[in-house]
Amino acid sequence: MAAKPAENMSIIVAYIACIAAGGAVLYATRLPAPWDALLADIVATLVIFAFSKAYRNSSTYDPYWSVIPPLLALYWYATGAGADPVRAMCVTLLVWLWAIRLTANWATHWGGLRHEDWRYPLVRQRAGKAAFWADLAGIHLYPTLQVFLGCLPIYAVMSHGDRPLGALDLMAFAVTLGAIAIETIADRQLHRFTATRQPGAFIQSGLWGWSRHPNYFGEMSFWWGLMLFGLAAAPQEWPWIVPGALTISAMFTFASIPLMDRRSLERRPGFDAYMRRVSAIVPLPPRRRG
């Protein structure tokens, strides 16, 4: 079901407000980089959380994942000192390409304020009396901090320019662009399938015949690509460049994917056989039926 124009405007207003709040923090704060951006990110998240509560829908936060990273990239590009121009431009363009694709995909298939991600009510229900805090911390602030960690390699690229381009940059470019391509193909295959699927059916063709979650594999690979760019620019800073991709991958591997698989097992006949035959994440030739 498509969103109504008023609902679209509600989301636009929420994100204008959150970006304005984050920008005001960056303008007013005297914190050193990248802590100024982290504070702005948290304040912007709190603004979106306020709109989520006002709209009674925590999916108001969903676009945040892809809206903020390209803005951070632009801010660090504008304020960074000494970045290698080719590396910085490659990273900026790739982050914007990823963000535009992911945000457009969300906007195209957003069901409006009447639709909320099925996982969010579960989080609140399990928290009981602490539902407010579970919503704030688990659905809003935790992903923001994860993505900020994932974006720190962008900061490394924009603030360290003394290392020339090399083989690691080429690998990073290939991984990041390949990840965007995998996500795009997986989403297009899924949307074509869902447009005509029968009740209880699930996609088992294309990339989905080699991986149960190729879209998640592409998303994880994107953050690994950024990590490689950060290491190419500043390998000595690996303690704060590496954790972002690792924590995002851990979230998908140990939380999102098991939750999705359990739901599919309950709702889709034959999914157990599909799980035995097809890799969970990395696209691999399917196992033979036996």
From TrEMBL:
<keyword id="KW-0812">Transmembrane</keyword>
<dbReference type="GO" id="GO:0016020">
    <property type="term" value="C:membrane"/>
</dbReference>
<feature type="transmembrane region" description="Helical">
    <location>
        <begin position="64"/>
        <end position="80"/>
    </location>
</feature>
<feature type="transmembrane region" description="Helical">
    <location>
        <begin position="240"/>
        <end position="260"/>
    </location>
</feature>
<dbReference type="Pfam" id="PF06966">
    <property type="entry name" value="DUF1295"/>
</dbReference>
<feature type="transmembrane region" description="Helical">
    <location>
        <begin position="12"/>
        <end position="29"/>
    </location>
</feature>
<feature type="transmembrane region" description="Helical">
    <location>
        <begin position="164"/>
        <end position="182"/>
    </location>
</feature>
<protein>
    <submittedName>
        <fullName>DUF1295 domain-containing protein</fullName>
    </submittedName>
</protein>
<feature type="transmembrane region" description="Helical">
    <location>
        <begin position="35"/>
        <end position="52"/>
    </location>
</feature>
<dbReference type="InterPro" id="IPR010721">
    <property type="entry name" value="UstE-like"/>
</dbReference>
<feature type="transmembrane region" description="Helical">
    <location>
        <begin position="130"/>
        <end position="158"/>
    </location>
</feature>
<keyword id="KW-0472">Membrane</keyword>
<keyword id="KW-1133">Transmembrane helix</keyword>
